Amino acid sequence: MSHGSVAEQTADLEAIKSLAAQVAEERYAPLAAQWDAERTPVPLEERQFLGSLGLLGIALPEEYGGSAAPISHALTVIEQFAYHCRPAAFQIFEANTGPAQVVARLGTPEQKERFLPGIIAGDITMAVAISEPDAGSAATDLTTRATVDGQTVRVNGNKRWISNGSEADVYLVYARMSDVPGAKGIGAVLVEADRPGVSFGAREKLMGFRGIPSADIYFDDVEVPAENIVVRPGGFRQLFTTFSIERLGNTTMSLALGQRALDLTIKYVQEREQFGKPLIEFQAVQMTVADMALQVEAARLLLERAASAVVTCDDLPDPLQVSLAKCTANEMAKRVTDLAMQLHGGNGYTEEFGLERMHRDAHGWALAGGTPTMQRTRIVSELLGRSFDQRR
Length: 392
Hints:
Keywords: FAD, Flavoprotein, Oxidoreductase. The chain is of the alpha+beta class.
């Protein structure tokens, strides 16, 4: 993938968008309903297939097998896949906008060499482990500990709501690494799933996200080498700013759901007749479709603005722009998929049309990576340049 002129980059993007749309529609759209119904994780060979197409390393460094393209290229591909099949899109999301980005930007050369080639090839996956039973939105309340003892780190604790939990090969674990309270004592360490002392709870039976496993992780005196430390205490802000890239991926998932629901609705209301005329002839339907389009387009523009800052593998997005985009897209996807179901009437309530699955997934993406309520708090914090203590 060339990174010369704007014209070359635009040509690159159109080519990769076209490839992604074709693969997603032909190979993964037919599997989407089945993976949802059976709660099937994406098979390893499918992930490796995506890796062979270069889709798992679009925004990762070239020296490890990636393309080092702007994050917007990865988001374009994620959208094409999420439009047809969220579990397949999740593989591209996790590799390009997930914890691999933290390793690529904040990790040591040795960590990059050890993990990134495998992620880019689809041989291994990495998941992020932040939330705990008593620390969800209040992430800085986490109690999982990573105690450094010479050349060894001992990890103890329990993580919850881990997307790809029990399925991923390695976890980027946010943990308390010093006795300093709050964010200042938190760092991050890589823990491989096959280390002695790592175990998993039963897979969650979620409303949506059904082809994306989620499970508790238990760390019982797990020992990893000190070279697995990615960020030491005091680097929490750095960690969370990098996590903004994952929020861009999340925003894209929501955008794809809204766009798909809108497209299906536009087609349906022109074909479906009631009272002797197509639904679109009714003014109430026109107003609803217009509202859907307004919300989808607003989310798209906010996402494009937030992503435009991340051109090279060193750039980080503006947290304010990310929170504006994520909050807007998350709420849009819930609302637009709901309106699509209503305009489809009884058909919208069947599994056959796929809208109920999209609505279920929309709620999941709004919860993941920081809820709309938390994004609103972030927005005000960034606008005012001050933080708010929710504990007082």
